[in-house]
Structure formats: structure tokens, C-alpha cells
Specification:
globular, 44% helix, Beta Polymerase, domain 2, 228 residues, two-stranded antiparallel ribbon, single chain
Amino acid sequence: MEENYNLLEAVLKELQVKGVLDGLVIIGSWSQYFYRILFENAPEIPLIRTTDVDFLVPNPARFNSKVDITELLNSLGFDSDFDYRTGLVKYVHPDLEIQFLTPALGRPKDTPYEIKKLNVNAEGLAYMKMLQDYKFSMQHRDISVWLPEPSAFILHKILISQKRKDTAKQEKDLRSAISIGEFCLDCSEHRERMKFIFMQLPKKWQRDILGVVKQHSPDLRDYLSENI
């Protein structure tokens, strides 16, 4: 996947130069690429096997600069793939596909969220706010990127795992989340952080998470359900 990262690195550098990278969060499976660096290639952090890169645009979006992301990505060899049914655009390259997501807040929308300062639209999805609220900045190869805190990443993956329609992706995401989650249980800082974030979630989300880990990880179930 190093060739894929080289292309992603070129994208990140351009976004950083243009002054908008600080307003985006890398979520989804590519977070694991950076977690493996953070945790010194711990085998419990699965290798990524996807070319899909998801950027989270916080809601509300805050950018000091105005940049035409479509033009920027086109200049790096990405084609704009417009879905007439949904109104969403993916940016497609033989090595990567990039899309923009944002937390769906308030009334449900049938149309994408317009991010005017970036000239892109973003798909609004439920359960994304925890990735926006619990994030950290990491420096890698002179690039500063925002990522979900590992604990938030884990809890989010577990929460949405049963809501995915694609069974294969559901199983893959759940395996990754459980593996990283059990690894974090052995690290006091991340263990405590996981419990803190879990306790801030709505009670229904807590019950949904406990229902999943009850079947797949007794260790996570016992820890998260302790004293609640």
C-alpha cells in the first residue's frame, strides 16, 4: 500500500500548502495506516487493504482559506465521478478513491451538504459526531493530520458495524475494531480514554455497543460495562 500512501501524501501536502488540511479529519480504514505508525507497527493494528480514503468535514465546517478541491484533485490525476442519483462526487484515481463525509445534524437531508469554501459536497452520515469531537493531531513526514482518537475510532466502528448492509465489510470492520480495542485495553492511557468516551455517548449507543461486544469480545464487554 506504500504506492497508495505516496499518492495520499501528495494530496495531503497540497491540502496543507493551501491551508485547509487542518480543517479535515482522516477517518475510516486509512486511520489504521497512521495508528500503525503511532503504535510502532503493533500486529494488533490491521494492515489496510482498501483504496478508499474518507475525509471528515466537521459540521459546522471552519476553513480560513477558500480552495477548489475538485481542481486540486483533478491536477493530481483524479477524475470526478458524479453520481446523478445522489448528487455526490467521488474523486477516482487508479490508486485511490477520495470522498468527503460530514456529521448529519438536525433534520435529515436528502441532498449532500455543500462545503462552499472547498467547492465539494459531502455525504451527511449519522454517528459521525464522535469522530469530530474526539480527534488528535499527528505529525508524519512533515505533514500534520487530524485523526479520530483510537478509542473513538473503535467505538464508532463497533457501533455502526451492525448497521452496514455489506456483510463482508461489516465483518472486516468489526474484526479491526475488536483487535484494536483489545490492544488498547493493555495501554492505560487509551483504556481510560475508551471508557471516558463511552460514558459520554447516548445510552442507546452504549447499549448497542455492549450488545455487539457481548458476542465478539468478552474483555471489552466486561470493561465497558463496569460500573454502569
